What we know:
single chain; alpha+beta; Aldehyde Oxidoreductase, domain 4; about 25% strand
Amino acid sequence: MSANPLSPEPGEEAHAGLQRRRFLGYLLAAPTLVAAAQLGEASVRAPKAAAAVNSAPQPAEVYDLNDMLTDAALPTSHLVSVQINRDGTASFEMPRAEVGQGITTSTAMLIAEELDLPVDKVHVTLADARPELVFNQLTGGSNTTVATYTPFRVAAAAARGRLLQAAAVELGGAVTDLTSRAGVITSQLGSISYAELAEKAASDRNQQVVAQLKPAESFSIIGKPQNRVDARDIVTGRKKFTTDLRVPDAKPTMICRAPTLNGKPESVHNLAEVRAMPGVLDVAVVSTGVAVRAETFGQCIDAIQAVRAEWKPGTAAGKSDETILRELKAAQLPLAVPKADPLAETVEAEFTFHFRSNSALETNCAIADVRDDRAEIWSGLKVPIKAQQMIAAQLGLPQNAVTVHVVEGGGSFGRKLFHDAAAEAAEVSKAMGKPVKLMWHRTDDSRVGRAHPMCVSRVRASFLGEEVLTYEQRHTSVATDFDHGLGEILTAMAGKLPPGNRTLAESIFDTTQQTGYHFGVTTQLLNEVDYGFNTGSMRNVYSPDVRCATELVVDQLAARTGKDPYEFRRAFLKDERAIAVLDKVAEEGEWGKRLPAGVAQGIAFHPEYKGFAAALVELDCRPETVNRPIRDGVTGPRVRKVTFAVDVGLPVNPRGLEAQMMGGINDGIALALTSSLHLEDGYFLEGSWDNYFYTRQWNTPPEMRIIVMPPTTGRPGGAGELGVAASFASVACAYGRATGTMPTSFPINHGTLAFEPKPTVPPVPQSPTNGLDHTY
């Protein structure tokens, strides 16, 4: 709908321009009250005042990825609606995917705030694929709360306004004499509940109404700590993920895969033998391997282990960490900024970041029921429209003949931007003519799933006296797959056309990366090369590696200019909010305190998605810590304390934000110290979580303090990924200070292979039958 801007949202003028509090909404014809929001020009952005600076704004400071995703979602915002039910509760089908980040909770809070309902009376579910939403059903880039903050509230406010009008008729008197609280509207003449008004307030035709949003000073829910709405279901095991769903005749299904990445089946020698195994119902050769459908997943594993097949070589055949590193260095763009002053000195460094697993706690899984004339899919999907469109094309069906149900996911970190499992399940179901419940084995996920690309980052900075004159960064990476596009098939397919994915990757890079410092002439450029790997937009995409390289060089600049690392950063930061988070961690983390030899502090900051984060860590690199015995694990240094400050503008749910940052901190520690994939002869050696060393209990900081800064703007910024980069960089900087040597290859323990690789044939190992050997 077109907006009707009448009055400013308090507190929003400072950073987001002039925002408005009154909008037009729609009442939709329905048996009970249903209200929607459509936002056109919902805000007028006032330009910032010009300031004298020694660095021009970078693209991400002017128009970032969040701006792009928000603007893309805006035209279809009116197609989401809030419904008031006959029992007085509210229902909302959210066009985003809940994968553990807590957006069902924050969304329930936004709607409850505007409806004057308790949060537990707002039921948020996930919408099926809705192609009419176009770009408005993509979950990524920490954009959900940013893009939906106003539309969801407007829909709820339109419903509240209609309830008040209906109550005025029922109770007598004026709307201005009414108050609403906890689902009850009261006046001096009496009270009436939302349950009683659900039908009375309903509309028999679509009509436009004015919706007035609450001012920030009236918030009683937004900005207050809130437990997750699904917390009890999670801890009691009641929460349903894809493999928990009961779809008639959808039997467990798994795939025997090639021993090398993206290898294809050439011939299978014993199909009849496999079909005759206990519990096996169907066997089919598909594009990715040999599919087995059985009564149990255990029987699927037994059958996969029995398959004898010949395989075509995969896309990474013969490649290793060493060969990819040589190719990346050969593909680097040149440093091109001329020396600004003949007396200027330079700091130059090159960093290597190895492949990392993009496997979430929940492995890839999907249910598919494909018939001759229709198909139905269930899976955790962050781009369900594109999944629906691509699966329809794959099956040769009209798009409207394919129904895609979005299921809550057990983690994503960017993995569920890709519908690999759903497409595979559809192919298998069609081949077998029966419903399937397809699950990837953890080994599948580690070895042939998606990985964060290996990359190198070269940095050169020049300085004269106490001034930094130039900063150049050339980031060279194995190609990141962005074929999810903006969530639908046209932008997805455009990414496959020359220069296609490369152009999209550069756009993502340019709209997310910024130094945040006044470093004179500043350039950060990306070059990506496709080497045939399955990659993805792993959490924070480019930022952790780019920021780690930047902050390590900042420490070198501070040392070369004789400055304290904290004071040096503070002197060059562009934004007052950035200075505030840096100051906060320095104060609360006791920057500069005396520590034992081999233990050091590291400090770093990161700006992204309209937010700012800073981390201060204490890292123990003493021999007794580095060499402590840990069975079947990479030990090395340990982070013993983290102080972290985050400013996202307006935190909708500070408790949820704190949890997000806690996860991001542990991600950052893992990236710095322990977690990586080892590529050898065309496949990754890691075959399970046992082999992949994410931050474990014995490496988790005993002390962690997360400080959520008070609101600094009237709107929320992105938070889902904001905790990773600053944490990674601060650990790297602490390592350099503790050891006296700047680290240049990550994770620091990548050179230590602390496990015996599982065989590639059969492609999945036997499931353990006795876990007592692994207890402590």
